[in-house]
Amino acid sequence: GESVGLHLPTLSVQEGDNSIINCAYSNSASDYFIWYKQESGKGPQFIIDIRSNMDKRQGQRVTVLLNKTVKHLSLQIAATQPGDSAVYFCAENDAYKLSFGAGTTVTVRA
Amino acid sequence: DVKVTQSSRYLVKRTGEKVFLECVQDMDHENMFWYRQDPGLGLRLIYFSYDVKMKEKGDIPEGYSVSREKKERFSLILESASTNQTSMYLCASSLGQGLNTEAFFGQGTRLTVV
What is the pLDDT of residues A45-60, one digit of tens each? Predict the structure, then answer.
């Protein structure tokens, strides 16, 4: 079946460095993707989204890249801060419901 | 700001009990969802609803049912709780069908079945 997955379950990053979190999806018909951040004890929170007619979208300190050829999505976080420590999920919009990957736990080292 | 509120943060129930998890959203969203979250498995969709009194099965509906009598409220029901239903349950809402917009999540209910 269709699935959305992340390449690595954990990522350790030095404070101040850039982080890159990857996600592969398998539904070539998907036209909308979202990155969520989940801090301990909280529900997932929206970070940034991208539609399939775009290759790149930038927010505040975050950039999402979409490569439709290889069905790959990435989230880049610039100048990673301790507050960026969380679990990050990519999600794929299938009609009006979202399918999620397993998540990547990002730990920021001081 | 959109607010999705789940009635309980933590619940402990006994095997065989009927359990109700309640969720309310205040942004007049058409779509509402129930997910469960388990380590290493991400978020898996249990049920969703795109309108009052409408419901659709998600990926793992077995052992669950839902109710949506009012637009703002979506309830998840465990007919007879079992230990394998111990999990974090997340409710979410989003704008109407056909619109690509993000889902907004509640804070989650951690259910333990003993």
Answer: 999 999 999 999 999 9
